[in-house]
Design brief:
The protein has 281 residues and is mainly beta. The strands form four sheets. Strands 10, 11, 12, 15, 17 and 20 form a six-stranded mixed sheet that branches. The chain has two domains: 103 residues, no CATH class; 145 residues, Immunoglobulin-like, CATH 2.60.40. It is built from three helices and 20 strands.
């Protein structure tokens, strides 16, 4: 009986040590919060999901890869105490996830204003809703940017503004469309909007003119003004359309009398999209 009792004590001790080590291995990162300070968590790729376990913390995503949080302000009778854990915060990006303990501090100078996360600080996560991370899209787009042109005869000019198709690449379920614009005037071009549509090749009064707007998932150049040249690569989910329709890129200037130029890309050009090869890398 004594041996059994001793064995039980050893077993409980071992379990306690194991549980302690297990909890230590699962320690969450701590972020210190205060009502007067906004805490920003910056991730290297778009944030897909956020969970805040209590209503003590509020947050939003002002930019797609930045989460901003702050404790809810309380009246004097319900103030938080220094060191209180206010919530468990879970952040999931396209490929990674991480969890934080949000710990309250009464000293605003000790509050965490910025957390710049590196991927090696986060746990890997297979997100079934993400076919390709945007970081990989950008890498492939910049690879195209640094490669030579594959198209030379798909262009359009109006108001001495020429828009040209440089490349179309396909990878997995996506199109990468590389377009450049050359301004042959001395007047700066101020882009109002760039729209992408699939529309009928010919306009006829006898039939309804049909057009479908297509939104890019990503582009690598956020500039809106240029004097001489502009270039961008747009990423789309792979699409198809019948031969009687055409894919258009419409670039419009901001002024009321702004210069608008439209590039028309036939389906045959889409079909000639190149695939990524080792020579590109």
């Amino acid at each position: 009986m004594k041996k059994i009792f001793i064995f039980s004590i050893l077993l409980v001790s071992a379990s306690s040590i194991f549980a302690q080590k297990f909890n230590q291995s699962r320690e969450f990162k701590v972020i210190r919060v205060n009502e007067e300070i906004s805490s920003h968590i910056v991730v290297g790729e778009p944030i897909e999901y956020v969970d805040i376990s209590t209503k003590n913390i509020v947050g939003d995503i002002p930019i797609k890869n930045i989460l901003r949080i702050k404790p809810l302000e309380r009246d004097s009778s319900a103030k938080f105490n220094d060191g209180d854990t206010l919530a468990m915060l879970t952040v999931v990006s396209e490929r990674y996830k991480i969890q934080f303990n949000c710990v309250y501090t009464t000293d605003r100078n000790l509050a965490t204003s910025n957390v710049d996360l590196k991927t090696d600080e986060m746990a890997s996560y297979m997100n079934e809703n993400v076919d390709m991370p945007q970081s990989q899209m950008r890498k492939l787009a910049w690879t195209i940017w640094n490669s030579g042109n594959k198209y030379f005869d798909v262009s359009r000019e109006a108001y001495r503004i020429r828009i040209t198709l440089n490349n179309i690449y396909t990878y997995r379920g996506f199109f990468f469309i590389d377009v450049s614009i050359k301004n042959k005037t001395k007047i700066e071009y101020d882009v109002d909007q760039i729209r992408f549509k699939v529309e009928d090749k010919r306009y006829s009064k006898a039939t309804n003119f049909q057009q479908i707007e297509v939104e890019p998932i990503l582009s690598i150049n956020e500039g809106k003004k240029f004097t001489k040249e502009y270039r961008n690569i747009y990423v789309f989910e792979k699409f198809t359309f019948p031969d009687e329709k055409v894919f258009t890129v419409e670039v419009a200037e901001q002024q009321v009398s702004g210069r608008t130029v439209i590039l028309r890309i036939d389906y045959t050009d889409i079909l000639n999209a190149d695939s990524f090869s080792r020579s590109l890398f």
